[in-house]
Amino acid sequence: MRIAYSDHMELVVKGQYMKFERILPIVNLIDLSSNNLWGEIPKGITNLSTLGILNLSQNQLTGKIPLMIGAMQRIETLDLSCNRLSGPIPPSMSSITSLNHLNLSHNLLTGPIPTTNQFSTFNDPSIYEANLGLCGLPLSANCTPPNDQNHKDDQDDEEDEDDHYMTCFFISMATGRLSCGILGCMWQFDSKQVLEACLFSVH
Asked: Global pTM?
């Protein structure tokens, strides 16, 4: 079943057909949990500005959480757990200051967990569990900034190069001999192959 909605309601009451226009903007609660729904969450759902409770848990929803979910400023309870939602937690979600119950567990979400506003009060790691790509508090997985990782890689490369030269130095010392003359002393390499390997194998 794919999620879709239209901004009206059609009812048959006592044999009489009635159509109510613009009914959804005043809806306060939507609970479609455990309905085997599939597909993406409609972006238009963020237009339901009076919605206080949204429960879409235990379905087969895919795609990303709508980017403009922060427009739902009256949301107090949001449960999107047990789906296949991917991508980051939208930054706009941190602007929902009325949010007091959140569950995003058992999805495929990635990236850092927001830390501002209401998110600073969500200290229970279970609301994010089973999202292997999420990082940051209250989870134990730390978020490593890309620049820091690149800096670490550069340091590792420099250390590897230094180790390489030190290894070459000791090998050269072991395979050469010291010759002294009028102009001083110099170390002669007995193995040309060792010298070439040391000079040209640095990556």
From this structure: 0.63
**What is the pLDDT confidence band of residue 184, given thresholds at 50, 70 and 90?**
very low
Summarize pLDDT for 14-57 with one digit per residue, the tens: 566 766 665 555 678 889 999 999 999 999 899 888 899 999 99
Q: Which amino acid is at 169?
A: F
Token match 């159509």: residue? 19
In this prediction, residue 28 carries a pLDDT of 83
Q: DSSP states of the chain as a string?
A: -B----SEEEEEETTEEEEEES-GGG--EEE-TTS--EEEPPGGGGG-TT--EEE--SSEEESBPPTTGGG-TT--EEE--SS--EEPPPGGGGG-TT--EEE--SSEEEEEPP-SGGGGG---GGGTTT-TEEESTTSSPPP--HHHHHHHHHHHHHHHHHHHHHHHHHHHHHHEEEEEETTEEEEEES-HHHHHHHHH---
Q: What is the C-alpha separation between 90 and 28, in angstroms, rounded?
A: 22
Q: In which residue are the tokens 């949204």 written?
A: 54
